[in-house]
Design brief:
By secondary structure, the chain is of the alpha/beta class. Helices cover 49% and strands 16% of the residues. Strands 3-2-1-4-5-6-7 form a 7-stranded parallel β-sheet, sandwiched between helices. Helix 3 packs parallel to helix 4 and helix 4 packs parallel to helix 7. The longest helix has 24 residues. The radius of gyration is 17 Å and the shape is globular. The N and C termini lie far apart (43 Å). It binds nicotinamide-adenine-dinucleotide. Nicotinamide-adenine-dinucleotide binds next to helix 1 and helix 8.
Length: 267
């Protein structure tokens, strides 16, 4: 298994699906990868930490080569990313949008027959207004190296870091649809999960950031009335990555306690 992003969501999914496997965990912050590797190895898993930058194709390739030393790669969990309060617009686009596209492309080349992957998108992608069919297709199908030159991703068309994040997450969903066709030729599946507010260091940065009150209000007023946990995201990942999900590919699974429903149609 390749796990990118040694955060709470990634670790929860790896713990659910990665028993008995060699797990390569890549993170830009090597100390995060080492911490997750130690926590999981102390709990009976077999994890190797590596330093990896999702926004850098060469770095992704190095991680894949490291994983291939141990055999065929059968699972991908992509849970690396930066949030609107953690990074400027350019970094959000480079990591969350471009980096995810490159990872899905590179993994599509090496995933073993019958392999499965999930990438973590966000409810933010669901909240943004619909794009035109042409823009959707551009996000889905433009070669990864040309993505950041698309007109809708130019600075004059992006209001703020939240808008950049929404565009990145919408792109993740579209990319997964397009990639699932290629993965399917190998009998492999790829889906995305769009979590709502899940308590992790990334979400805590948001609670303490400029939109903190907005987010706290969002989960207080959503049907679930609370934020979610990484283990609840792992519940969805287990469905998508196990044989129970064999008929699910190219899909996006919104798991947000009803926050998106409430945003559009609630009080
Ligand atoms: N927590 C939430 O409420 C929430 C909601 C929706 C979506 N998400 C998404 O879930 C994913 C995982 O986030 P999390 O909440 O588990 O956060 P987290 O902070 O626990 O983990 C994210 C990890 O990604 C790593 N990372 C950041 N930039 C990187 C890069 N360029 N290359 C490699 N690693 C990098 C960080 O160092 C960190 O270890 C992100 O894509 C995030 O956008 C989170």
């Amino acid at each position: 298994m390749i796990l990118t992003g040694a955060g709470q969501i990634g670790m929860a999914i790896a713990r659910r699906m990665g028993y008995g496997m060699k797990i390569i965990v890549g993170d830009k912050k090597q100390e995060n990868a080492q911490t997750v590797a130690k926590t999981m190895n102390d709990a009976g898993f077999d994890v190797v930490p590596v330093e990896m930058d999702l926004s850098d194709r060469a770095s992704i390739r190095r991680m894949i080569a490291e994983a291939q030393k141990y055999g065929a790669i059968t699972m991908l969990v992509n849970a690396a990313g930066v949030s609107p309060s953690q990074a400027p617009i350019e970094a959000i686009l480079k990591v969350d949008l471009y980096g995810t596209a490159v990872l899905l492309e590179e993994m599509g080349r090496v995933i073993a027959p019958g392999g499965v992957g999930v990438t973590i998108s966000s409810q933010s992608g669901h909240r943004m207004k619909q794009l035109t069919p042409e823009e959707d297709e551009q996000l889905a199908c433009t070669p990864a190296e040309e993505l950041l030159a698309l007109p809708l991703l130019q600075p004059e068309n992006i209001r703020d870091t939240l808008h950049a994040y929404q565009l990145a997450k919408r792109c993740n969903e579209k990319r997964v649809m397009a990639e699932s066709v290629k993965w399917g030729a190998k009998g492999a599946r790829i889906n995305s999960i769009s979590p709502g507010i899940i308590v992790t260091p990334l979400a805590i940065d948001e609670f303490n950031g400029p939109r903190g009150e907005f987010y706290k209000n969002m989960f207080a007023k959503c049907p679930a009335g609370r934020p979610g946990t990484a283990d609840e995201v792992a519940n969805a990942a287990e469905l998508l990555m196990s044989h129970k999900g064999d008929f699910i590919t190219g899909a996006d699974f919104l798991i947000d306690g009803g926050a998106t429903a409430s945003y559009f149609y609630g009080p």
